[in-house]
Amino acid sequence: MYIKFWRLRNYPLYPMDWPVVGMLPSLVANLHNFHDELTVVLATNGCNFKARGPVASGMRFFVTAEPANVRHIFTSNHANYPKGEDFAEIFDIFSGTIFTIDGEAGRQHRAMFQNILSNPRLLALMASCCRDKVVNGLLPFLTRMGSTRTTFDMQDLITRLVFDLTATPIFGVDPGCLSISMPSIHVATAMDTFMEVGLFRHTMPACFWKVMRRLNIGPERKLAMAETVMHAFIREMTEKSKARCADLLDDVLAMDIISANPSVGRDDVLLRNVLIVHMIAGRDTVGTTLPWVFYNLARNPRVVSCIRKELAPIASLKATALASNSISSVVVFDPKETEHLVYLQAALLESLRLYPPGPIERKVVLADDVLPSGHQLCSGETILISIYAMGRMESLWGKDCHVYRPERWLSEDGAKLRYVPSNKFMAFNTGPRMCLGKDIAIAQMKTIVAAVVWNFDMEVLEGQSIEPKLSCILQLKNGLMMMVKQRE
Predict the structure, then answer these.
(1) Which residues are annotated as part of the binding site?
(2) Same domain, yes or no, for 280 and 214?
């Protein structure tokens, strides 16, 4: 009788709100398709709705995809909406780092890393590392796959590439995940586990997963094993870094962190956590985004043609130099050469709109407040901002919001990028917590995508299931099987 009454009253606007257990069963039932289900619910409820968990769980949620609310939460009144203690507990592996701390301590950490990441020497090192990996790792691998028409997992390939790209500037040591032998990457798997168990903790009452952690069972046991693997990797890489020459130690991010904040260097646990956060931040943005980019490009040859047209003037100059020196015809583009290519960047932004690497942001309400949408929030409520849903709202992006169309990012003459406020496009966050590595990430993705698109035709294998993994980041659940063919 209750179910019948609920359906007559609410369907199809809200998930099932059961007595005692709240919306938890509805959440669990739709977890396999969580982001798309959430998008539908938000679209049919004006971009906002409230939800609750089981009685006595303390789980009270306000879910939004409205830019005006986002601006208020992240910018206008951001001090009232920290990540909160629950978030810090969920991601205790990152304890004491910029990822979990708020307030003045968070601002100090952010200022420190902003200064480090603007260091021209470090930026040059990152750019050099990216080019080296593309030339000596990525392109040779794709050439081998193309010559034999062998299928491969693009997500695994990108994971290896970006893992090396991230670790090398941090430690000054190349892990060699993209070497010819293609070694097992248990550390990358451990990093994935952090995000998968993070989502589990988000969706369960805290008492549930804390009991599992104490008993060392289920996902919590898997997380403990992943922590052991990650800590061993950090220890090994740090020792290798210390074993290098003293003058070379000045050229790695780990040393910059210690010199910028000596207290971090004196605390082994905090330094380890900071290095883990940098590994996660560097790897997950680019490593999660690029497989979706190549998926979209392979399914949209018109977009590939437009990118090649933009690259052609640069490539023709390089081709002349290559021919005169009898060098291989494979073309690699430097970051300075791709910096001003607007269509290439539009293609990346469009993929980020549809498949943001971090699909959800979480905040907590400190003091009672009223949002621009008119919704009243009470102290202690949790706010979930669906970045995935925001990218698919017809009210924000038009009737073709589900279509991959880079032109939406360009001016009418196609000569420059349109301005899109960050509270509408949150792939790199917004407000005081805007991603510090945004420009670095875009430069790396441009370098990688330009090299692949210019030198190879791509094809997605038919019949595979393309869906997101259950994780705090939007990875592909089953990988991305592709084939390539080298262009003449």
Answers:
(1) 435
(2) yes
